[in-house]
Design brief:
By secondary structure, the chain is α/β, with parallel strands linked by helices. The chain has two domains: about 160 residues, Rossmann fold (3-Layer(aba) Sandwich); about 80 residues, no CATH class. Helices cover about 45% and strands about 15% of the residues. The chain is built from ten helices and eight strands. It has an eight-stranded mixed β-sheet, sandwiched between helices. Pfam families: PDH_N, TYRAAT1_C. This is Arogenate dehydrogenase 1, chloroplastic-like. Keywords: Oxidoreductase. It comes from Nelumbo nucifera (Sacred lotus). GO terms for molecular function: arogenate dehydrogenase (NADP+) activity; NAD+ binding; prephenate dehydrogenase (NAD+) activity; prephenate dehydrogenase (NADP+) activity.
Length: about 260
């Protein structure tokens, strides 16, 4: 059961796609004050949610936000960050938070461009609108306190997820990417392969085959850009792709050897 944090935050969201809206709904429920900006016009959606929407980044930064939440896609991060007018920041120690599915890439990029007085928290909520639709209890929230001086603001932001019952996992960006390459990237790759094979339910599905069909269907709900980002911006992904290819060839060879034995 969730309860409201004792102190609320002013959170500005850059990028207001489905995942940002999913997070925003809970933040609003907890009483936080939100503003949003995005390359696409989401003013109607924001009006429905009671969030001020700004088409221009300059006017968005006129708000005195405690936190700037980056909810861009992996592939668009660099372009979006280049458009940020950091000189218009109102707070000396604004906390920047990203929620990308890779972690070393946004960490390294943001450390290069953020004002030195700004804080940086790299996070990965490992759930989304589908897996988190019935609540966030026990769902993992991975985070790395990359550069934190304003402990109060950082703690209040993390409390958003603690309050909802998330399993809080403190982990370095590098360790995250190494584990995610084997877990998330490999899962997406298998799902994409199954999609290319056009597998679908039949009248005689085993439980195992039903699991494969569900994996395919869950995977293709995510954009191709996300999948490409998981590969292009995680240095461990290429090795996992090679491991998958090698494992397939090994299994194939075992089958062929069995045929030759007969």
């Amino acid at each position: 059961m969730s309860s409201s944090p004792t102190k609320t935050l002013r959170i500005g969201i850059i990028g207001f796609g489905p995942f940002a809206r999913f997070l925003a709904a809970t933040m609003i429920k907890q009483g936080h004050t939100l503003t949003a900006t995005s390359r696409s016009d989401h003013s109607h959606l924001c009006t429905h949610l009671g969030i001020p929407f700004f088409r221009e980044m300059d006017t968005f930064f006129d708000a005195d936000n405690d936190v700037i939440l980056l909810c861009t896609s992996i592939l668009s991060l660099s372009e979006v960050v280049r458009s940020i007018p950091f000189h218009r920041l109102k707070r000396q120690t604004t906390l920047f938070v990203d929620v990308l599915s890779v972690k070393q890439y946004p960490r390294d990029h943001l450390l290069q461009v953020l004002p030195p007085e700004s804080d940086l928290l790299c996070t990965h909520p490992m759930f989304g609108p589908e897996s988190g639709k019935d609540g966030w209890t026990a769902l993992p929230f991975v985070y790395d306190r990359v550069r934190i001086r304003d402990e109060d603001t950082c703690s209040r932001f993390l409390q958003i997820f603690q309050t909802e019952g998330c399993r809080m996992v403190a982990m370095s960006c590098e360790e995250h990417d190494q584990l995610a390459a084997r877990g998330q990237f490999l899962t997406h790759t298998i799902g994409r392969i199954l999609s290319e094979m056009e597998i679908k339910s039949t009248g005689m599905d085993t439980k195992g085959f039903q699991t494969l069909v569900q994996l395919k269907e869950n995977t293709i709900k995510d954009s191709l850009d996300l999948y490409c980002g998981l590969f292009m911006h995680n240095k461990f992904a290429m090795q996992e792709l090679r491991n998958l290819e090698l494992a397939f060839l090994t299994v194939k060879q075992k089958l062929l050897e069995k045929m030759e034995d007969k």
